[in-house]
Amino acid sequence: TSSSELIPGLGHQEAMLCLARLPRSERLVFYTVSKAFYQLVRSGKLESWRRSVGVVMERHCFVCLTTPGGGCCWKGVCLDTGKWWPLPPRAQDGDELFGSVMTGTQLLVLGRHSLWTYCLRSDKWLAPATPPAYECAFGSSEHTAFVAGGIDEQGFASTAAAVYTSTTSSWKFLPDTNKARRSCSGVCMDGKIYVLGGVSQTGLPMYCGEEFDPALKSWTVIDNMVPWSEHHMRPLVTVLDNELFGLNTRTKSLVIYCKRSNTWKAI
């Protein structure tokens, strides 16, 4: 319908309360209810309304699928309902995809020359930006994401680092890391940023890590933090409940990091 009402027959307040409880995975089905509803979803204002009335945000996961023509498409899944929905297509620029990270309600897709941002609130891709580096470490925590290291425009291993704030859709450069590295991994833990392993400018595997403390605004090298680091792949690590887990590729075992002793213990 072309009605200006969100839901024909209901007042604006009542309609907003109903729509606030509609899972994101179901919205595509209701896009044709009215133009007003479609415009509301695309504006991103519905998510702000949901928070104001205390509706808990669903948990989401995004996957990238290869299409028959050699391109890719993204799909989202609501982990609470099990429902899948397609993300709108983004312009295919032929850029090589090497990583993605979720922060707040935004999905960052990193390529060699482009950085794409999908906004969950408005169900739209923002205009592509230039990534700080390629083959860099990346991680996220709540409403911030970071990148560090990687390969710069001249093809050298980088010491650059930057943090992205999803609430303002803006980047800010951090102090450089102490050591240049590429093909490294990154995590956020205990309110700090960690860059682990990677490859040096000379092509040798790096076993050290670095910790960035926002309070001190400086990086600290942690020697032998990833003793199994290999030159052909970034360390396989993740954080759960502020505990760092990894896959020791030499022993093929799942390990947990002991912060006080800077050692790993098999699980």
From TrEMBL:
Keywords: Repeat. Signal peptide: none annotated. The keyword Membrane does not apply. One of its GO terms (cellular component) is nucleus. It holds the Pfam family Kelch_1. Transmembrane segments: none annotated. It comes from the Eukaryota. This is F-box domain-containing protein. It comes from Selaginella moellendorffii (Spikemoss).
